[in-house]
Write a structure and sequence with these properties.
The chain is an all-alpha fold. Helix content is 79%, strand content 0%. It starts with a helix and ends with a helix. The radius of gyration is 18 Å and the shape is globular. It has one domain. The protein has 8 helices and no strands.
Length: 207
């Protein structure tokens, strides 16, 4: 029995929120970018995230099975390396925190951060292959590809909202005064730790 839109849309929002708001590398990266670029870093990172996520959703809708064949150990390795580099740049730039120009150039463009931390995050792929896939299937059952589009729209606005909130909170960190460099350093260290953890899991998986 196909469920109604009234039942489906709240389901998408609730399930999506569980993934969107779970702490992870993108969380710390967004706060770090927000501390340097302000709240506008949030929508930019969200755009990068969308660039990766939208094709993935439609691939699932078309019934492609290559996702299950991807060796997530290599994705973990690549993603971990990306996080370590981003975290190191953030940590290194903390010494110049507050100096306009130095900070604004740090760590690359937020859109690319969104692309990198989404496409190289195995847990993002696993979430869509497991938790997210049933939502895509239900959307297809209700209204075909149009239903998938409505489902994705109901999901992605949460990503943009949450990432903007995180970037805004990061921008407020500038009010920490002389403690601000330590704040940025902490974000950089957190990303390096995430990256190392990803790579360790990858190496253990490959051994």
């Amino acid at each position: 029995m196909v469920i109604s839109w009234a039942e489906f849309l709240p389901m998408v929002v609730v399930i999506s929120a569980s993934g969107v708001m779970s702490p992870g590398p993108l969380t710390f990266a967004t706060i770090a970018s927000g501390s340097k670029r302000g709240w506008k870093a949030g929508p930019s990172i969200g755009l990068g995230h969308l660039i990766v996520e939208l094709p993935l959703v439609f691939v699932i809708a078309m019934g492609a099975t290559f996702i299950s064949s991807i060796d997530l150990r290599w994705v973990s390795l690549g993603g971990g390396l990306f996080m370590v580099i981003f975290g190191f740049l953030t940590f290194r730039g903390a010494r110049g925190a507050g100096k306009e120009g130095t900070v604004s150039r740090l760590s690359g463009h937020p859109v690319m951060v969104g692309v990198g931390l989404s496409s190289l995050n195995p847990y993002f792929l696993v979430w869509w292959a497991t938790v997210g896939a049933p939502l895509v299937i239900i959307g297809m059952e209700i209204a075909g590809m149009f239903g998938v589009g409505v489902m994705f729209t109901s999901h992605i606005w949460l990503d943009f909202l949450w990432l903007t909130v995180l970037a805004f909170l990061g921008s407020r960190g500038k009010k920490l005064g002389r403690f601000y460099p330590y704040f940025v350093s902490g974000l950089g260290i957190a990303l390096v730790v995430f990256g190392i953890a990803f790579m360790v899991r990858a190496f253990y998986g490959l051994s």
